[in-house]
# Entry
Amino acid sequence: MKQTPLHSSHLALSAKMGEFAGYDMPLYYALGVLKEHEWVRAHCGVFDVSHMGQITIGGEGALAFLNSLTPSDFSKLKIGAAKYSVLLNDNGGIVDDFIVTHSDEQSYFSVINAGCKDKDIAFLQSKLPENVTLTVHDDYALVAVQGPEAEAVLCQILDITDLAELGYMKMAAFGDCYVSRLGYTGEDGFEISIPNHQVDILWNALIAHPSVKPIGLAARDSLRLEMGYCLYGHDIDDTTSPREADLEWVMAKDKISAFPEPTRKRVGIILTDKGVAREGAEILNKDGQKIGVLSSGGYAPSLKQSIGQGYVPVEYAVEGTEIQVNVRGNNIAAKIAQMPFLKPKTKITSKTGK
Amino acid sequence: MTVKYTKDHEWVKLEGADVAVVGITDYAQHALGDLVFIELPKVGATYKKGAHFAVVESVKTAAEVYTPISGEVIEVNKGLETDYDLLKSPTDGWIAKFKITAADELAALMDEAAYQTYLKTVD
# Structure
């Protein structure tokens, strides 16, 4: 199995390790999943996400290339600003979801899913025009620092004061490190792209801070699920269109009509009765007929309820619609719910909130 | 009364001649982490030895609990419906009581010493 540069640190912390996308990764540490989740919502957690891919698409044709492969329009994205989008295959299905940062005049830095890394790189290379370059940053690790105390913690550790000026979905360079104010938890926080040989210094400083706990992939999943974020390979894949995935907000207005009107939609689901429904559980209408399958699901520690996501025919994709989910043969009452399930606390700096 | 153990980390002990009390071990609870839901069986349901009769769920996973002995559920621990930590109690942490017909099924299970030895062989 592959390892990140922080692998020995996870072992030293006695993390419960498990395989994720070919990497031996920490699933949880001494606190346990539930308390790790709560710690991030209340304080600050640090995640090793170095298994994710880091790439830069550069060159004269980089902007046009990105615009051709995504349903978004990157032409108004300012230098230093980031935008969430999806890479699309020739059928309009989602190859991967990613955040693209306009890092330099003709350069776009992006973090791609660990499980999609090889596929994405092969896909991009197969489409690469002559005036575009693709650089893979295997020499960089990635650490996420998330939670309401993230800004204060990072200012102390990096010994800087101007992080407060860094807006949501913005990136700044500090020496060889690139700090972006974004994340996968719905909390204020940062992702730090840092050379492999420096990452243990940052990691050790972070976990030594009294406000910080190391957080594993299990809590990363429950945190993102509460925000209704997609997990690639589960909530979106090569067969889902961005419109079906309820990702019209990432699409340029003039590109939406090129995609057929969806007949099914990704929705949020809250269990109104007791139980926990997980990925693969059947979604039924009130009469007990199958209308879909949960693409993600689990217990939401912040809500003390179980939640999920799944695709249902559009006529059911209305907030408040009463449905059921089947768990081990029992039908549990549930309803279609607005996502995010929990109000995000990401730092909003612009009036549009984008 | 002596307690017996399964390889799946359930414990069982006899109350009188024909009632078996069943729960899960500290090891199982530690492996699961904080619980968020427990699905209890229905009183009156009958199970064959090795059948799953309850489910304990943590944030990360759902674990089926198998009955170490055949029988009919005569009582469930109602306290577990609201207090999952109760499962940790050495005296009140049982899940269900079964009326059993084949007490000899217990003979094949591990005793305390054998279970402790077995734990050393699992991660």
